[in-house]
Amino acid sequence: MRQPRVLVITSCTGEKRYKPKNQLTLEDFKNSARLQKRHEKLAQFLYPAGQMYTGVQHLRVMEGVQLLRQSLGREAIHLAILSAGYGLISEDKTIVPYEVTFNTMKGYEVNEWAKFLGISQAFERAIVGYDLVFILLGENYLRAAFGSPRSGWLRLPVENSSNQTFIFLASHLSANYIPDLAAKTFVLPLSNADAKHYRYGLVGLKGFLFKRFAECVVREEALLQKVYDEPEVFVQIVDTEPVQLELSLGLPEVKLSTKLVKKPKIGKSEDKELIPIPNLDAAPNLHFGMHYFIPEWDDRVDPRYDFLRDAMTPGRDPYEDDIYAHQIYYSPNYNGILVSKGIVERSKKKKIQIEEVGIHKFIRFSGSVMGDCGAFGYIKEEVPPYNTEEILEYYQRIGFDYGVSIDHLIVGSFAESGVREKRYELTISNAEEFIQKHQAGAYKFTPIGAVQGWNPESYAQAVKAYIEMGYEYIGLGGLARTPTQEILEILKAIHPHLTPNTRMHLFGVGRLNAVPVFRHLGVTSFDSASPLRKAWLDSAANYHTIDGKTYAAIRIPKVDGSGVRIKRLLEAGVSDRETLNRLEKNALHTLREFDAGRVSLESTLDVLLALDELLELPRNGKVNPQEKARRLGRHAQMYRELLEEQPWKKCDCVICQEIGIEVVIFRGNDRNRRRGFHNTYIFYKRFNALLKGRRY
Ligand SMILES: [Zn+2]
Predict the structure, then answer these.
(1) What is the 564 CA–ligand 1 centroid distance (Å)?
(2) Could you report the per-residue pLDDT of 135-183, keeping only the tens digit for each?
(3) Quick one: angle between helices 139-146 and 119-126, nearest 10?
(4) What is the set of active-site residues?
(5) Class of the 274-528 domain?
(6) How remote is the CA of residue 648 from the centroid of ligand 1, in Å?
(7) How far is the CA of 235 from the centre of ligand 1 (A)?
(8) In the chain, which residues fall in CATH 3.20.20.105?
């Protein structure tokens, strides 16, 4: 079935890309010869109308339009703008900045000027051929298009056909300016109460709701047809899908449920209680939602790894043939990837390859890629080993979408008085140079100003300064190990300085129980590799599940591999290779038989523990018998829980579906990293649920 053709009509905004002193005024528009001359003078400011306006409503509308186009194609939706200077124009018409608005005109002035511009006729021509028309106009703009009930409609009715559907998003009062039409019409009158309900300022609310609708259509294309058939469902659609909004709504019910959940003794739960939202207004940048970036660290696996024989694909090239998590899952389990300079330069070969093909192609990821300088790599240096110009060039050259200014960490011994001030000033002056040179050059990536600090005030002062410098994206560094409560104090101090256009990233902080409160306080993105890395770095929480419970993976090291543990065991004479080999094979075989339902849980545990008993790491050539007993006791309990509950059978992710029980075996890169990919999948699912005010 053909999708309805969509037209959006929105108004011009006072905020524009440029504001030259000699911009056009009302007088200029009255005489076409004069207008022509003035246009020539202002030619350097010519821009397509779609990109000229920078008011909140316009930005949100454009985001919604882009979303629909990405999903349905460019021709699926057209945009017209009602300009108080140019009349009704298409988004592609090039215009220059002007200072004219219907908002400040008196009723009769609106009528006269609209008549002069021929708006009503233009309106009639514009709507021909569209099935679904969204009209996002304020009171005087509606009046310009349709006239008014008191002075008589300009042209009544506007020529429209009964197989069209019109949706008006209009302020409460201006709903009176909407005439009766032959088309199916739905009017959503908006008031301050609605702004509160949607937690969005009244000024941009129309655009915000349209964008929200677009987000819903992107997820379910059939909604477009549905709204065409029954325009009233528009409200339900934008209401029932609280996209990245109203995060606090999930809180009371969550508190109740956590009381009922018994904490498992072993195999700890990640499901910590959500941190309550403080009594502060939601940050004005709430509409950005929240994005998760994963730091890149060559996290790849062999796609044809032979688990039964424990063999790599013969002749494989570890870069060419191995694949990333986003090549395994149907869609990525992150909104973007963070790549530090140190990772790019990990080897000479890698660096050359990345320089050759660009970052997106190298990591085979078409989504957002953020670049930073990896401040931990030079924490001990007095000054960072890079200069701003080379970093700007580097971000541009290899094609980053976002580039972070050069910062210097203020943590540990570097947070002492005397050192910290220097690093603080240095980080700020780097950020200033970064944005100035970025603005002067033709750089395509979005600049992010990196902030360091040592207390709420120092962070807040820097954020304030960055926003004044022109930054629209700020990244807070040095907080990866900071307790959540302290991060909250910092965010509260920053809160008053944030604008609706400010995005804010938290470097290295991925805490699910703080997602709603971080979001409320203005954090729009963060990065974390912790779910991935816990798969092999945590002593117990290796396999994560959707309800927050975690399990230990079963340790079966490769006896003939290069691991240190086996080497030490053999050196200390704890056991011999032959015995270990036999126990290893038996453990793997029995686990698979257990998974297939052919061996009991008790027999399987016996086999696993027979191996595990020998695996306690000798210290100075000797095994401590108490440590050994403790390890055995812990593992007996953790493995029993894992085998009893068999969480890998309940996971719907492609890795668990494909490799089954292998995913919970702690053994080599191809199992451990796949388990990390699974954890990332779980993390992303839980993160998105939290953003929607839900909880698993
Ligand atoms: Zn899974």
Answers:
(1) 29
(2) 999 888 988 888 776 665 555 456 667 788 889 998 777 777 777 777 7
(3) 80
(4) 372, 527
(5) alpha beta
(6) 6
(7) 36
(8) 274-528
